[in-house]
Write a structure and sequence with these properties.
There is one protein chain. By secondary structure, this protein is of the alpha/beta class. It has 8 helices and 8 strands, in the order βαβαβαβαβααβαβαβ. The protein has helices at 18-29, 43-48, 61-68, 82-90, 104-108, 117-128, 145-160, 177-186, and strands spanning 9-12, 33-38, 51-55, 73-78, 92-100, 133-136, 168-173, 192-196. It has a 6-stranded parallel beta sheet with strand order 3-2-1-4-5-6, with helices on both faces. The protein has a two-stranded parallel sheet with strand order 7-8. Helix 4 (82-90) links the parallel strand 4 (73-78) and strand 5. Helix 4 packs parallel to helix 6. The longest helix is centred in the last third of the chain and has 16 residues, at 145-160. The protein starts with 8 loop residues before the first strand and ends with a strand. The model has no long low-confidence stretch (mean pLDDT 89).
């Protein structure tokens, strides 16, 4: 989606989670300059994947990125919600892209679909606003079957070659899938939650 070239620069929100660590892991392959927001408990994980860790509770990611990379970033990956989308957009360079792939904050606040309308309006504004780009990304294996399988093959090949190292934070039996969702929702552990189907 973002088409970041080697030696580019990115910001990853939720960088200690499954998607976040995957983005950092892939970014390392392309020698990217990477910033990652997360809790203090996940600082070591973010840094082990090559990210400049930013504690979202006590640090201002906008100020840090602007101070360390004044020209701005090539891309920001943001699953949080409207408030961080605005800040993520502001730290992009001209022509940079904001990739939105979730709505964690509104879901955690228990908002209904109607309650999420301000988020959708913000995203619409960021998409049409000139200077920088914004896009909502979602994986749809049915509609994007060919691309999905090509991407999965690439990832499996990288894994076989030991070029990527997915972080498994916790393995949960399939019968406890509801508990796995709770752990994921609460962001209790770093990395991925794996369901054991054996």
């Amino acid at each position: 989606t973002a088409r970041i070239k080697d030696h580019g620069s990115i910001l990853v929100h939720g960088a200690g989670g499954g998607v976040g660590t995957a983005l950092l892991d892939l970014g390392k392959l392309n020698d990217l300059t990477m910033f990652g927001t997360g809790s203090a408990a996940k600082r070591d994980v973010i840094e082990s994947y090559g990210g400049r860790a930013i504690d979202y509770r006590t640090e201002d990611f906008e100020a840090i990125v602007k101070n360390e990379l004044p020209k701005g970033l090539d891309a920001a990956y943001d699953p949080i919600g409207a408030e961080t989308w605005k800040g993520s957009n502001r730290v992009l360079k001209k022509g940079g892209i904001l990739v939105v792939y979730g709505l964690m904050a509104p879901f955690k606040q228990g908002k209904s679909i109607l309650g999420m309308i301000p988020n959708f309006l913000t995203l619409t504004w960021l998409i049409v606003k000139p200077g920088r780009r914004a896009k909502f990304f979602a994986v749809n294996p049915v509609k994007q079957r060919q691309h999905y399988y090509e991407d999965m093959k690439t990832l499996v090949d990288l894994l076989k070659a030991k070029k990527i190292n997915p972080l498994v934070g916790k393995v949960v039996p399939l019968g406890e899938a509801a508990e796995a969702h709770k752990i994921l929702f609460d962001a209790e552990v770093p990395g991925n939650i794996v369901l054991d189907c054996s």
